[in-house]
Amino acid sequence: MILMEVQKKKVVVVGAGITGLAAAYYMQKEIKEKGLPIELYLIESSLRLGGQIQTVRRDGFVIERGPDSFLSRKVSMAKLAKEVGLEDQMVRNATGQSYVLVNEQLHPIPGGSIMGIPTEIAPFIKTELFSWSGKIRAAGDFVIGRSGIKEDQSLGQFFRRRFGKEVVENLVEPLLSGIFSGDIDRLSLHATYPQFYEVEREHRSLMLGMKKTKPKTTTPQSASAKREGIFLTFRNGLESLVEAIEENLDVCNVMKGVKVENIERVEDKAILSLSNGKTLDCDGVILATPHHISRQLFEKHGILQSLKDIPLASVATVAMAFPKACVTQEKEGTGFLVSRNGDYSITACTWVNKKWPTTTPEDKVLLRSFVGRSGDEAVVELSDSEIEQIVLTDLRKVSKIEGNPLFTVVTRYKEARPQYVVGHKVRVEKAKNELQEQFPMIKIAGSAYEGAGLPDCIDQGVNAMHAVLANLKLS
């Protein structure tokens, strides 16, 4: 009896940021657990995996160049960490007061605020972050009706209508623009915070609606318990996860320093032409590259061109290490945001040694500042020494800092932060529909599409993996 060898399907993941790594890891898991006849490849244009996740470990410090943590309530990141044996390395942020820098003063973010939306009256009344006229205008949220706007709108338009100019400029805008490095007057409500639209539609008042929908602490234990941080990272930095995933990719062909230069379709296969001169005939492809790279690959096919309207912002992070004796902070807390109206180049600063104690030796201080945002990105183009001096000058307006840093780590991300501007969901849906029609074996995923947070990217990678498997019809 002659046994016919099953012809293996070839699946390629392009791009080894967290999206591509998750897709490759879980595809490999499916192959192993179900004995699937799949030959798996992971292609990365740079010489390292992880994309913007990069950790500097120096002199006892753990410094993140890119993202520094992930939301604990979004479980996919912690689940992946457990899968690769890092569950015991996860650490939660220390809780502490956060501030907004307005008119040269650090003002505590009012207690009970959810993304800048007040849910408790007393802290909002007591805060000096807003004038009385600003507070009275914000109270209009209790009586203002639903907007009636069903189509997409900007975050700025939505929040100014409900709370007025002052609350938005001094609290909502620093919070939201800090998360997205974007302009709230361009950012899409439906693509970034659709839950606010739903709260207004259901409860009319955002303040009352957010108060009703926020998690309750009803037991005596929870009411008296110490507040727990909502973010997680790893004791030795986020790159620990990248390293662990790479170690676990034992049946995946990992190709570093290789670019996909062209994509064609021949019948039910995608033909990838690579920068090393080779071609891959693929039965399934997960394209986890930056969206502008994906768009360029399909330009001659006339699809994915709606992605051109997803702009990119440039930002830089500046981490500075000091002896503890050289830094005096008048406020106790974990960091501050900066109102756009102030005369500052930095947009935010994390007091890392306070927020993440495991990152810093006990006798040292670590400050991580952010510069650059949509519409104000020139500072990112300056030299490292120029950026360092600008940031140090700004920090000395807020804290007493003697001498120069022990060392500084400057990281630039030029045109690297996708902006979910108004109409974003329509653009992404159009691109995915075009791809499904002309290249059904290819799926796109990543931070430019359906969430930029690390767990969001993992979810997209996993969803793309399942979609490719479904298209292969192996079962």
TrEMBL record:
Q: Name one Pfam family in it.
A: Amino_oxidase
* Organism expressing this protein natively: Psychrobacillus insolitus
Any idea where this protein resides? Cytoplasm
Q: What does the record give as the function of this protein?
A: Involved in coproporphyrin-dependent heme b biosynthesis. Catalyzes the oxidation of coproporphyrinogen III to coproporphyrin III.
Q: What class of enzyme is it?
A: oxidoreductase
Tell me the organism's taxonomic lineage: Bacteria, Bacillati, Bacillota, Bacilli, Bacillales
Cofactor annotation: FAD
| InterPro entries, per database record | Amino_oxidase, FAD/NAD-bd_sf, Protoporphyrinogen_oxidase, Zeta_carotene_desat/Oxidored
**Key words, A-Z:** Cytoplasm, FAD, Flavoprotein, Heme biosynthesis, Oxidoreductase
Which first-to-last residue range defines the signal peptide? none
Q: Which SUPFAM superfamilies match?
A: FAD-linked reductases, C-terminal domain, FAD/NAD(P)-binding domain
Descriptive protein name: Coproporphyrinogen III oxidase
Q: Name one GO biological process term.
A: heme biosynthetic process
Gene Ontology molecular function = oxygen-dependent protoporphyrinogen oxidase activity
Catalyses which reaction(s) = coproporphyrinogen III + 3 O2 = coproporphyrin III + 3 H2O2
Subcellular location, principal? cytoplasm
Cellular component GO terms, alphabetically? cytoplasm
| UniProt domain Amine oxidase: residue ranges | 18-464
Please report which protein family the annotation says this sequence is part of: Belongs to the protoporphyrinogen/coproporphyrinogen oxidase family. Coproporphyrinogen III oxidase subfamily.
EC number of this enzyme: 1.3.3.15
Please give the pathway this protein is involved in.
Porphyrin-containing compound metabolism; protoheme biosynthesis
